[in-house]
Amino acid sequence: MSTELDNIELRPARRRFLKGAAALATTLVAPGVMLYKTGQAANDNGKSIRWGLVIDSNAMSESDVDACVSACQREHGWKTTANSATDAQWVRKVSLRDAESGHQRFLPMMCQHCDNPPCVDVCPTGASFKRADGIVLVNRHTCIGCRYCMMACPYKARSFIHEVLRDQLPVAPRGKGTVESCTLCVHRIDRDGADAVPACAEAVNRGDRKAILFGNLNDPQSEISQRLRQLGALKLRADMGLNPGIRYQGL
Amino acid sequence: MPSPQRYVEIKTSTPIYWSLIVVLAAIALIGIAAAHHMDTEGHHITGMSNQIVWGLPHVFAIFLIVAASGALNLASMASVFSRQEYKPLARFSAILSIALLVGGLAILLLDLGRPDRLIVAMTNYNFKSIFAWNIILYTGFIVIVGAYLWLMMERRMHRWSKPAGLLAFIWRLVLTTGTGSIFGFLIAREAYDSALLAPMFIVMSFAFGLAVFVLLLLLSFKLDRRELGISQLQRLRKLLGLFTAAVLYFVIIFHLTKLYGTQNHDFEHFILLEGGIYTQLFWIVQIGLGSLLPMALVYAPALQTSSKSLVLASLLVILGAFAQLYIIIVGGQAFPLNIFPGYIVESSFFDGVINDYTPSLWEFLLGCGGVTSAVLITLLAIRVLPIMPDGLPEQVQ
Amino acid sequence: MRLRLSSLPLFLVLGVLLSAALSICGVNAADQSASSFGQIVIPAPAKPVDASHCVEPVEVMRRDHMKFLKHQRDTTVLQGERDSKYSLVGCMNCHNPTTANEEVIRYENPKHFCSSCHSYASVKIDCFECHADRGLVSSQQSNLTLNSDSRQLTAQTFNQKLDPSRVD
């Protein structure tokens, strides 16, 4: 589906082959079927879109990270209960301490919206999928609750819903027996496009000081691409070659 | 020239047989009820969590699925490798493998978050997913082994049983490769991420499947008072010893490979030395009771003619199998993911800590239900179909 | 391959097993329809709060609402199109199943707008395992805090944010 997406980074050759084969099969088997607009991937200039975040850990205090988490809870209606082991956590506060110096910092940790997401690879029904604009989602209409994606995710980004839910918010339908994770506030992105601000970013950004910067990683002119070019940022577990769309500064 | 082997339905109608059937059926029903309860309440009533996403049901299910493919071994030896001495047991081997697979799949299905969406799983395939391959491999296995069984039982079609046996043999190797690869392909977790898991699961299937086969064979023969010659027992005994040793070999190689790479030292330290329940299960149950003791029972010169020692050895192999799968499945998830190498990590989502898991009664009942369904199907099938040889007395040379 | 008469007890056991399994599976269905055995309950779906219009004529909606919803669900989840006039949230906001005394009518209740027909026609849907089975009541719309009951999550102003065309 995302064959038109091409990242600046080199992918493993095998994946290119698979994508080529898929593209070939698509051309042969289903012309027209695949031509629908997916995730509004192509903007007016015809450039491809890949949404991502840059998180500046130096600009975030512990309370900023807490604000991210509660903003996400308000936005999507998940919350912590007494059963912490089975609670869903779309975004969580992670404390990192250097064993030698004792230096401590806090980060928000969520779905990394990988370019090569293992959760999508392992999902038997294709419920776990990557939109053409790079957002990794769970289609709850076809999720059977096998939790294989949770086994495969290197970032522990996903949660399984362990109990019956009621009165879900319209922007975040969620229910017992399916898996969920950060959606990058996809409902805001579908409404506002490049001007969208995910709830976590909205909670911590003040004026020009953007601790969490949202934008199009594929557009060299976007603020996020420029910041990445000037200041650089880390991809978590870059060794796995998954090319996450969430980048961390200050690690 | 010995007369052709006759196959007869078991005829026993003793209270023991029927009470066994009733007990097995009752446990299977309780298992279904437990699954229904899990489905209505949600998985919060189980011990599973967002940390340990696969628990005891998966240990039971993977045991049954692995044992299913191994139970077909005896039939393969007769059909594929032309070992005539195993021929009388080929039908039983086939029906047992189908029954075990059905039991295992039932557990996997009923543990899903949305078991009502079976139809979605059967109609939406992501062909890059090993799980999706396995859905095809499992259903294909039942169809192929079912056809193979029919070809063996229908005299006019007998000549086709050999190619069908070959197909079933290849299919079961692919199937167990798929089961092992469910874990082997998970690059994210240190406990898995190894190509060795696929061949290791195949060897495990040889041992687990044979142990279950021996127990149910001896049980059925005893229930119907049929004669089982000592040399038949001896062959099974030697095979069990060999397969148990082969599993042990793979376990040693698996851990040596992990130990050689420094990045896996923490994980090996956890499983082998300081993992609490997992370390105890590994050394005491898997290695001691599940590998070394059965080998001693099988190979001890004084016990060569004792069928009791073979039964005990098979039970111990199964006990070790459960311990091994528990360590692989649950232990592998208990060890935390290393997302931030070099940092001490803490969070509200159990980053950087060893995860707790206490199985609940519901999961245990569901698992037991799957096991008893498999046994129940077997005991009923040999009653309605001519599967069991009417006796395997010692051949006079 | 033949079956023998002496297997009769076996079939008895199988029969007991089967009926027990069926009864377990049927528990939910029996709960809902127990009272309506012997008499046919004609569905009488509650009128919407604002009865002036629907997105399509009633006859079309009766026959095709599931097609509209299924198509919309796929375009929204897979392609991110959220401006369709067909949406389950739209249905629930209008056909908001709350009675005069503010009693909450859940989907399990045969008086619920959707279940009144679905239980009559024996249609099983799973929409409301993930979607709210009622619209947001006015008292909730400005309420940004989470309710004390962990499973009762109240809402923010969805309508104004994502669907400015709808005036409540």
The end-to-end span of chain C amounts to 70 Å
Instruction: Note the run of SSEs of chain C as H and E.
Output: HHHHHHH
Low-confidence stretches of chain C: 25-36, 137-168
- List unreliable stretches of 5+ residues of chain B: none
The succession of helices and strands of chain B, N to C, reads HHHHHHHHHHHHEH
The mean pLDDT of chain B is 94
* Overall mean pLDDT of chain C: 68
Give the N-to-C terminal Cα separation of chain B.
11 Å
**Major sheet description of chain C:** none
The Rg value of chain B, from CA coordinates, equals 22 Å
Give the strand tally of chain B. Answer: 1
Assembly state (oligomeric): heterotrimer
Instruction: Tell me the total number of β-strands of chain C.
Output: 0
- Radius of gyration of chain C from the CA trace? 22 Å
Proportion of beta-strand residues of chain C: under 5%
Biggest sheet descriptor of chain B: none
Characterize the structure shown.
The complex is a heterotrimer of chains A (251), B (397) and C (168). Chain A is an alpha+beta fold. Chain A is 25% helix and 16% strand. Chain A is built from seven helices and nine strands. Chain A has helices at 13-29, 62-76, 118-122, 148-152, 186-192, 199-204, 223-231, and strands at residues 51-56, 91-98, 104-110, 128-130, 136-138, 159-160, 179-180, 212-216, 246-249. In chain A, the strands form four sheets. Chain A has a three-stranded mixed beta sheet. A two-stranded antiparallel sheet of chain A has the order 2-3. Chain A is globular, with a radius of gyration of 18 Å. The model of chain A is unreliable at 1-12, 26-40 and 42-46 (pLDDT under 50). Chain B is mainly alpha-helical and 397 residues long. Chain B has a domain at 15-240 and 358-384: Formate dehydrogenase/DMSO reductase fold. Chain B has 13 helices and one strand. Chain B starts with 14 loop residues before the first helix and ends in a 13-residue tail after the last helix. Chain C is mostly helical. Chain C has a domain at 42-132. Helix content of chain C is 42%, strand content 0%. Mean pLDDT of chain C is 68; it is low at 25-36 and 137-168. Classes of the chains: A alpha+beta (251), B mainly alpha (397), C mainly alpha (168). Chains in contact: A-B, A-C, B-C. The A-C interface holds A 36-40, 73-75, 77, 79, 81, 129, 131, 133, 137, 139-141, 163-171, 173-178, 186-187, 189-191 and C 73-74, 77-82, 89, 106, 129-134, 136, 144, 146, 150-156, 158, 162. Strand 2 (91-98) of chain A pairs antiparallel with strand 1 of chain B, so a sheet runs across the interface.
